[in-house]
Amino acid sequence: MPGGELLEIFLLEAWEGLALLEGSVGDLRATDRNDDHELGQVSLIAHRLRGSAGLYGYPQLASLAGLAERLTESRPHLAPGDRETLLDVLELVTLGLRRALTDLSSGQAENAVGLYFAEVGGVERLQALLKSAPAAFRTVHPASAPDAAVPDAAPAGLQGELRTFARTNAEVYSYFAPEVREYLEALRTELDRGAQANITLMFRSAHTIKGSAFMVGLPALGHVAHRLEDLMNAVREQGLTLAGAPSALLLQGVTLLERMLLTAEGHDDAALTADSERLPARIQALLQGDAPTVERAVPDAPVPGTVAGGAQTVRVSTERLDSIMDGIGQLVMSRARLERQLDRLSQLEEALQASHARVQRVVRDFEERYLNPDMVRSDAPEAPGEAPGGLRGTVSEVFEELEFDSYDDMNILARSVTELSADLGELRGQFRDGREALRGEADTFTKLLRTLRGNVVRTRRVPLSQAYARPRRWARGRKDAELVTLGGDLDVDAFVTQGLSEVLLHLVTNAFTHGLETPDAREAAGKPTLGRVTVDARRRGTLLDVTVSDDGRGIDVDAVRAQALERGLRSARELEQLSNDDTLRLIFLPGLSTAREVTNEAGRGVGMDIVASTVRRLGGELLVQSARGVGSTFTLRVPLSQQVVDLLTVRVGPYLLGFPAGNIAGLRELQVTDVQEREGQAHLPDGTPLHLLQRVWGVPSPTGTVHAVVIDTASGPLAFGVDRFEGIAEAVVSAPGPLLDSLGYVTGTSVTPDGEPVLLPDAAGLARAAVQLRGTPSVQGEARSAAPSRRRLLLIDDSLSVRRVVSRMLERAGYTVVTASDGQEALDLYRQDQAFEAILTDLEMPRVNGFEVIEDVRRRDARVPIVVMTTRAGDKHQRLAFQLGASDYFSKPVDESLLTRCLERLLRPA
C-alpha cells in the first residue's frame, strides 16, 4: 500500500473522480428518462477510478468502482422502478467510495469497503436489481465499451505527437485548447491594430501559452510560443519596430499554433512539421540582425470544428452563464429601482393622507357653520294677508313653519366639499390597496430573483481542484520537490476558478523555480532534501482564502530593492523609506524579477504582475510574507461570488463607497477623544488600526463622532473612518476600468438605483494610501501654498533625446525647464542664474560629470534639491552621490509618474 507522495497523488485523482461521479449520478437522478450519455459518463469515470485504485494498490476501492462500471457500461434501459433501484445502488457505491477515501485521507488503512456497502443495503438492492432485470446488464462488445475503441493509426512525427496527446489526455486537452485559442484570438486582435497594438498584452498572451504548453506536455507548442515571446520582448525592450517583418512573423506564428491545435483534433496538415521548424529559424535570424525570408506565408488555419472525418463539437463555456448573471444583475438594478419607486409611492400616500386630513378639518368647520340643524331663520315682521293659493303668509313663512331647511350658495358649497372629502377618502383607500398589491408583487419578484441568482451561482460552481490541475501536472515530474494541495473539494464560482488556475500556476512555478533551494543547499542548511510547496484553500464566510507557501530560501529583499531601482520603478530615497513588507510588494510590479537567468518557466518579470492584476480583477487582495532561509507565503483572498454582491454603502463627504458585507467584521461609533494615537497611527480602543477616509478623499475630518467600518483582511482587521453609514443592499459590481484601476485601492464600481456612482475600495490598498498621506499637508493647505507661477528646473543630460523626453514630462506637470548638454554648460548657467528650484542631472557626461556638478552646487547652496537620473544603479554610485549631497537617485528610463511624485515631495513647503 503506497504512502507519502504516491498516496497524495492518488487521493487528489480519486477525490476529483469521485466528485465527477457524484455529479453524473445526480444528473441521472434529476431526469426521469434513460440517458445514454450520462450512463456512459458514469461508466467512464468509474472505469478510471477502478484503474487508478488498482494501480496504486487499493483492491477494495477498485472492486467497488468496478461495480459501478459494470452496471452502466451496457447503457441499460430499465423500467421506472428498476431505474430507481439502479440509481440507489450507484449512490450507495459513491457513499462507499467517499467513506474509503475519507479513511485514507485521515491516515487509516483501506478498511472493509465491501462490508460497509453491505451494511447500508447496497448488496440487497443489487440482488433485487439483477433479479428483476438480468438481461439489461449483459456485457457489451469490447469495441463499444468505454476506452476500448481502436483509434486510427496516428501519423508519425509532429502530427502523430499532437494527435496522440489529444487522444490520451482528452480531459486536459478539453480545457487547454479553448484557453490557447482565446489567447491566440487576443494576439490576432492586437496585430490587426498595427502601431496601436498593446505589446504588453501580446507578450503576456504568448507567455501564458508557452507556460501552459510546457506544463501539459506539448513542448512543440511551447517552443513556438517561446520564440514569439522572444520576438515581442525585443519589440518591447530593445526598440524593434512591430511593423514589417516582425508583424508578419508574429501573424505566421499565431496561425501555426492554431494549425497545431487543429492537427491534434484530426486535421491533416502535411506542411506542419516543416513550417514548425522554419518559423523559429526565421525569428532567430531577425533577432540576430539578419533580414529573414518571409517569401512563403504560413497557410491559413481551418475553421475550428470542421475537422474532416470527425464529428463536430460544440464547446459550452461559462460565457453563457456570465451573460445570464449579467441579466440577473440588470434585474437586481431594476428591482432596486422598483423598490425606490414604491418608497416614493409610500411618501405620496403619506402626503395624500395629510391632505385628506386637512380637507376633513375644513369640512367639519363648514358643517358647524352652515349645515347646523338650527339654520338661520328670517327675522322679517309678519304681514297680514294670505299667500297665493289660499295659504296664510309668504312661501318662506310656510317653509319656516314646516321647519324645512333653507339653502343658499354657501350651503351648497359646503355640501359639495363634504362629497369631495368622501371621494378623496375612497380614492386614498384604492391608492393604498393598489400600492400594497404592487408591494406584494415586488416581494414575490425579489424572492424569485434571489432564487434565480442562487441557482445560477450554484450552477457556475465547480470544484476548486480544477484550478489545481495545471500546477499539479507541472509539478508531477519533479524529483527534488513535492506539491501538496488541500481544499480541492471546495465548490467555487467558475469565474474564480479560471482566474485562480493561472494565478496558482504562476505562484507554484515561482516557488519551484525561485523559492526552493537545490537538494545540496537544503541539506547544507539543515533542511530535508525534498522541498515542499503547499497550496491550501479554506472558506471564510463569503470569502475564499488560498495560501501558496514554500519552505525555501525566502525572498531577497535587497535584490528586490536593487531591481526596482535599476528598472526605474522606484527612486533610491523611496526605497529607503519602504518597510520590508512594502518592499516585498514591489515584486508585483511589471518587469521586476530577481531571477539570475531567463528560463522556459520564469525570469522575465511577468508572472507576479499577472498574479496581482488577476487577483485585483477578481476583487480580492494579495498578501506576501517571507523570511530568509525559512520560506515565503502568498495569501490570496477572493470573494466566492462575483457580479452581484451585498454592499454596505457609506458616505465620505459627497462620495459614496461600498464594502462587501461578507468582509465586514463590525461597525463602531465612538467619540474622537476615544481614538488612541500610537506611533503616529490612530487605533480603536481595542487596538485595531484606524484610517480616516476623509483624509484620503480630501474632505474635512470628523470633529465629534467617528463612524468606523471594521474590515477583516488577510493581514488582520482594519478600521476605516467614514461620515455615516447608509445601509446594506444588493448591488451589481463592475470592473473599475483602467483609470480607476491605476489608483491601486479601487477593486470595482457600482451604481445606486438613483444613478449615483459607488466605489468599492480594496481595504489593504486603502490602508497603504492612507499611510502614504500621513504627515502631508491638507488639500486646502496645498492649494493655499501653491505658487501661482511655474517653477523653474535645470535639466542636465548629454543625450538630446533624453532632454526632450524628460522636458516634455516636466512641462506636462507644470514646470518650466531649462536644459544643459553637459555639466560645464550647467554650471555656467547656474553661476549666472541660481533661481532654479531643483536640478536634475545625469552622471556620465563630457567635460564635467554629474558628481562634480553636485559637489559644485552644494558648495553654493545646501538646500536646492538635486535629483540624479542615470543608467548606473550600482551601490557605489549611489553612495557617492548621496555623500556629495544628492536628494534622490533614479535609474533610466525614468517613469513619469515616479519623477513628478518625487519633485512634488522635494518641493513641498516645509
TrEMBL record:
Residues covered by the Histidine kinase domain: 500-642
Keyword Cytoplasm attributed: no
EC numbers on record: 2.7.13.3
InterPro entries per the UniProt record, alphabetical: Bact_Chemotaxis_CheA, CheA-like_dim, CheA-like_homodim_sf, CheW-like_dom_sf, CheW-lke_dom, CheY-like_superfamily, HATPase_C_sf, HATPase_dom
Catalytic activity annotation: ATP + protein L-histidine = ADP + protein N-phospho-L-histidine
Residue(s) carrying 4-aspartylphosphate: D842
Assigned GO CC terms: cytoplasm
Pfam families (UniProt xref): CheW (PF01584), H-kinase_dim (PF02895), HATPase_c (PF02518), Hpt (PF01627), Response_reg (PF00072)
Domain HPt: 1-107, 165-264
GO MF annotations in UniProt: ATP binding; phosphorelay sensor kinase activity
Record's protein name: histidine kinase
Organism per entry: Deinococcus aquiradiocola
Taxonomic lineage from the root: Bacteria, Thermotogati, Deinococcota, Deinococci, Deinococcales
